[in-house]
Amino acid sequence: MQINHYIEKVLPVYRAATEQELTICPGEWKYGSFFTTILAECRLFQPWATERFLDNGGRIVTGALNSLQELHGKYDVVVNCTGLGAKRLCNDHKLVPIRGQVIKVRATWVKTAFYADFDTYVIPGFEGVTLGGCRNFDSYNTEVSRYDSAAIRERCESLLPSLKGAKVLRESVGLRPHRDPVRVEIELLPTTNGSLRVVHNYGHGGYGVTTAPGTAKYAVKLVKEALQTNSKL
């Protein structure tokens, strides 16, 4: 097995799976890895993050925006985290949705996460076990597909047969804002009476929560650079 040195540096435990561990799931698995990590349930994490933002003096203003230039004169720097909205706001044709669908089931006996071929994963969480998944490139369909549901269950139950008959709690569909590469950079947007400093931070695809701490720190660094009077903008 080839070691992933990037993961090895950030995870508490990361090693090759033992021969015994490779027999947990049916099939003649020859390679695998075992690691420990943290789990963030987005349905819980996002409200918590919003509360932290408000508690620290942040304000949420709701409104329609046709262009980032409309914000000129209102803020010193704008951080653009509009996800798929950046496709229109920034005329960014590199940004595309990748549709994902998951099934949440009740399976309290599953204590370990599994990830296998064809984007197949079983992840125990705070509100049941998540079964996935799919990646439909450039799809805007937000409806649950019974065909995807059937395929997900078939793959996950083949990976972990004990899931057969597990009660479905809910099914969810989401659109991941994918861009290659992820856009985290400064841009000086011309306006009718000057310019607007913008720090873009979008296009993370299905890895938004995973990569958020790193890209957020880099975005903050760029904001500080943009605020400097001797900025090279």
From TrEMBL:
InterPro entries: D-amino_acid_oxidase_CS, DAO, FAD-dep_OxRdtase. Coiled coil: none annotated. The keyword Isomerase does not apply. Pfam families: DAO. The keyword Zinc-finger does not apply. Keywords: FAD, Flavoprotein, Oxidoreductase. Gene3D superfamilies: D-Amino Acid Oxidase, subunit A, domain 2 (3.30.9.10). PANTHER family: D-AMINO ACID OXIDASE (PTHR11530), RE49860P (PTHR11530:SF17). This is FAD dependent oxidoreductase domain-containing protein. It comes from Anopheles christyi.
